[in-house]
Structure of Sec-independent protein translocase protein TatC:
Amino acid sequence: MTQQKDEMSFLDHLEELRWHLIRSTVAVLVIAVVAFFLKDFIFDTIIFGPRKGDFITYEMFCKLGQFFNYESDFCMEKLPFSIQNRTMAGQFSVHLWTSIWAGVILGFPYILYEIWRFISPGLYENERKIASGFIFIASLLFFMGVLFGYYMIAPLSINFLGTYTVSQEVANQIDLNSYISVVRSSVISCGLVFELPIIIYFLTKLGLITPTFMRKYRRHALVLVLILAAIITPPDVASQIIVAIPIMLLYEISIFISVYVLKKEQKRKAKVE
């Protein structure tokens, strides 16, 4: 089977890739259809959850502020802004695209599985054996990032931007698409950022990254992490620190992963020689 795939032409590889993409798309669409009919739960419970004053993140920061005798902006029954739709097909469009994105997020493990099936014929036998572990760890990291984005980044962004005013004369009436965009970008960006250890794993195997390189440029990485945190969070120091800490922890974990991969590669080359 491996030999046949090695002898496949470029067009044959494209044909195989096409079928992997088709199966991934079908999986996403099936989940999207289910999400489409779970409209009340998807929107009222999940997406509009961070808009409610009793959201778990707000309660946590409120109690933390009370513990330190600090008047917190998170202690409010309801955030002082309304969400509106200003186009005829706006709500249907949001419903449709939100269902599709739900399909992408929940179908992420299967998408990874199809990607792995496509690239695995070009790997060594022992590398193909770790497929299940790779898919599990990559999916776990992605969903951890999604949860971090939903419970930390999205509420902090919504609370800050939704309550920010330049004057009492201006009322915050947030467009539906704008609100959904904040939640979606927070969740997906964190999900992808949490894939850093997986990315470092493959970059190390390709010889593009080494542990020495990562340790040498640790300070530069910290600056980049702070810049990234400033981009995906509201412009306040506390939010940026909350985001920067787990990313730096992932960076340190990635160094250990790089060390492990490099040692494995050196042992393999030594056996070959």
Q: What stands out?
A: The first strand starts at residue 82 and ends at 84.
